[in-house]
Each structure stands twice: as C-alpha cells, then as structure tokens.
Amino acid sequence: MIHAEVALYPLKTSHASEVINNSIEALRNQGVQFSVGSMDTHIHGSEEQVWNSLRSLFSTAQNSGEVSMVVTITNAADY
C-alpha cells in the first residue's frame, strides 16, 4: 500500500473550486480510499490504484485549462 498527498492548483481561472471539485469526483471512480482536506487530498491504496488515481485527477483538471499539481508519495506504513 502507498499513500499520496496531492494539492491541485488550477491556473488562470476564476473557477478554481469547480475544477478541483470535478477532479476530486474523478477519484470516486477509481475505487481508492481518499480524504479531502482544505488544502490537499490524501489517497491510499495499492500502487496501481494510487498512480491511476493521480493520473485521473490530473487528466480531469487539465481538461479545464492550465493546472499545477504537487504530490508527495510514501510507502511508510505509519503515514
């Protein structure tokens, strides 16, 4: 199991919350555990699930325009 902490930053838009919420909705289709915080989202699952979720999150966000995504990944058991 791995864990990812991800922050998504839509650029050049006045609808950042909408872009973020649509991207988070894409996680629901990945079958991965996640929790949404005020500044980031934590994703937990198998390597395949987490990497696929990150790809889906970024892909959905970039459909709305320019975006920056910051990710920290760990395999530490107590994270």
From TrEMBL:
InterPro entries: MTH1187/YkoF-like, Thiamine_BP. Residues 4-75 form the Thiamine-binding protein domain. Signal peptide: none annotated. This is Thiamine-binding protein domain-containing protein.
